[in-house]
Amino acid sequence: MRWYTALPAATVASGAAVTAYAGLYERTRWTLRRFDVPVLAPGSAPLTILQISDLHMTAGQHSKQEWVAGLAELEPDLVINTGDNLAGFDAVPGTLRALDPLMDRPGAFVLASNDYFAPRPKNPLKYFWPDHKRVHGTELPWRDLRDGMSARGWLDLTNAAGELTVAGRRIDFAGVDDSHLKRDRYDMVAGPADATAAVRIGLAHSPEPRVLDRFAADGYDLLLCGHTHGGQLRVPFYGALVTNCGIDRDRVRWLHRWTEPTAAHPSGTWLHVSAGLGTSPYAPARFACPPEATLLTLTPRSA
């Protein structure tokens, strides 16, 4: 009888410990991830890209704001922001303060659902229903965020294309609005990427395969996305339970090939999905998936 009594108590205690770890410790274990991406022409000098995604910032998250601002010490050649910056109506000033030192570097961004709309409580089981009805919160001051980044020279690639000269080399860009909300309009940026650019980069907040395939077909070397939170709550030795988009679980975070090299496109297309730096205020926990920014070093491909 004592064994049967002790088992539920032990289960409850273990569950409480996991919940405390996920909500009180890992959620704020800010982590820098690093990857090398062989997409440059043989003999090229490396380029570094800092990717920031899914901040889900609130005004009071000072630890996160200070950590993000401190990433400027990495002196990246380029900074990319792949959306979902906000989690409150008063979050724009704190978000822009966090990004301020980084905006001294060349940069580009796309916006996403949590830039446009405030988070709402929801049943977490909905993430297991791909076709569940989405109900948006109240509109956030996303224009203030957009204008703050644009005023510092960052390219707004939300359904737009552009180019930057970074460390003396020209980079060709295209981006789409949030494909999870079906606001992407790839036809506005469609067409072959500039083959004379040093590297061609595509941005999309949500890594929806239908969008990634179009970027790859147009010759983009590197696709940068966020949205998934890497699964947010991962099961050791299994991985993400859900991706919250069309991407497969194996590529829900980090660097992977999307297409293989060909004679016409010798680097193929690489995909990096950031695990992101935040959570919804209504789901403030991470497990086996710490909050991350990523430093990508672009290196020469094999001759």
Can you describe this structure?
The chain is of the alpha/beta class and 303 residues long. The protein has helices at residues 2-25, 62-70, 92-99, 113-116, 142-150, 209-217, and strands spanning 31-40, 47-52, 78-81, 107-109, 155-156, 160-166, 169-176, 199-204, 222-225, 234-235, 239-240, 254-259, 269-273, 292-300. The strands form three sheets. Strands 1-14-2-3-4-5 form a six-stranded mixed sheet, with helices on one face. It has a six-stranded mixed sheet with strand order 6-7-8-9-13-12, with helices on one face. The chain has a two-stranded antiparallel ribbon with strand order 10-11. The radius of gyration is 20 Å and the shape is globular. The model is unreliable at 9-17 (pLDDT under 50).
Radius of gyration: 20 Å
Question: Strand fraction band?
Answer: 15-25%
Strand order of the largest sheet: 1-14-2-3-4-5
What's the rounded overall pLDDT mean?
Answer: 90
- Low-pLDDT parts are 9-17
Number of strands: 14
In N-to-C order, the SSE pattern is HEEHEHEHHEEEEHEEEEEE
What is the 3D form?
globular
Distance between the termini: 70 Å
Q: Helical amount among residues, as a percent range?
A: 10-25%
Major β-sheet, in short? 6 strands, mixed
The helix tally amounts to 6
Q: Given the helix and strand composition, which structural class is it?
A: alpha/beta
